[in-house]
Amino acid sequence: MSVLVNKDSKIIVQGFTGTEGTFHATQMIEYGSNVVGGVTPGKGGQKHLDKPVFNTVKEAVDQAGANVSIIFVPPAFAADAIMEAADAGISVIITITEGIPVKDMVAAKKYLENKDVTLIGPNCPGVITPGEAKVGIMPGFVFKKGRIGIVSKSGTLTYEAADQVVKAGLGISTAIGIGGDPIIGTSTKAAVELLMNDPETDAIVMIGEIGGNYEAEAARWIKAGGNKKPVVGFIAGQTAPKGKRMGHAGAIIGGADDTAEAKMKIMTECGLHVVKSPADIGETIAKAVN
What we know:
The protein is of the alpha/beta class and about 290 residues long. It has 9 helices and 14 strands. The protein folds into 2 domains: about 10-120, NAD(P)-binding Rossmann-like Domain (Rossmann fold, 3-Layer(aba) Sandwich); about 140-290, Succinyl-CoA synthetase domains (Rossmann fold). The strands form 2 sheets. The chain has a 7-stranded mixed sheet with strand order 3-4-2-1-5-6-7, with helices on both faces. A 7-stranded mixed sheet has the order 9-8-11-10-12-13-14, sandwiched between helices. Strand 6, helix 4 (about 100-110) and strand 7 form a beta-alpha-beta unit. The model has no long low-confidence stretch (mean pLDDT about 95).
């Protein structure tokens, strides 16, 4: 079993024929992900990267059986692309696009509320189940198969954590990059819960950053009874000045509880193995598992 994506996932790329869509679809196909086609309105019926192009997501679902979508649509149209995928019956929507207007994401998230769909992102690196499916922009060679799950707000630190885990002699079950925007589809807690319930995941690396309360919410959930497996936690932005956005749109200290120090304190109190440097992730997870 794996979380969200696996070898049986039938993946489509929205924004398939664009520069980003083409580049990353090529990488996904080369990795071995089951990409069954893509969507570019007006180009339906053509072939691209030797895969069919559809005008709509509905066509891709009906004709190719698509159940996972990755979105490389420009920011102004990306929320519409998310809603179209949900409407067509896609069960996992992974949105890479950065810079989607907040009001658009509010509408898209509201639209998804009563639908049986998981949205990852936006502004995220995607999801990878090593050796089975890479649905995102991460360097696949870093990730080796194993039993450690990763949940991260940061793209780069997802790859760093994976490298640390592998160098510690372990591997990854599924890594989920949830994205760093103020409004995202899947929270840290929800992603951690997926991995807690996965029988093929033995421990979890949880990477957060300044801003928002996702990490504190996840830590309190773990303490309240979700702590079936050891969790190693790291918060990026320990030297960030207040009121200044750091990298991600959501990474801004708005109050006393948004700082890295406050989050790390809560995580420690909730029983997580908190590290001060990403360089300590591998060693700490190895100790926690053994």
